[in-house]
């Protein structure tokens, strides 16, 4: 687990942004006696959200929309891949 305080210090961001992401349900914080932490598996998403917010000015609601749309795109790409594979089976007569 990574300390939110440590992450914010390294990336020079405000902890309130991390808490806003957690309030929006975009990340899950683990609260310990020495502060909030985030699981390492969530770091790639957190880094994306941080870039979107600080480099592009996207608010937490916008981040949620972008995340949802990217998930839908990935799902559709997977469906298209599966449909192409099935179509190839029919076309090749296998």
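-> sequence recovered:
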């Amino acid at each position: 687990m990574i300390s939110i305080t440590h992450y914010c210090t390294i990336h020079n961001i405000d902890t309130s942004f991390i808490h806003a992401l957690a309030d929006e349900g975009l990340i899950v914080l683990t609260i310990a006696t020495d502060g909030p932490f985030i699981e390492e598996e969530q770091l790639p998403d957190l880094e994306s959200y941080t870039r979107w917010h600080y480099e592009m000015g996207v608010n937490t609601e916008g981040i949620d929309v972008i995340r949802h749309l990217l998930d839908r795109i990935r799902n559709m790409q997977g469906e298209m891949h599966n449909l192409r594979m099935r179509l190839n089976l029919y076309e090749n007569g296998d």
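The beta strands are 2-3, 29-32, 35-38.
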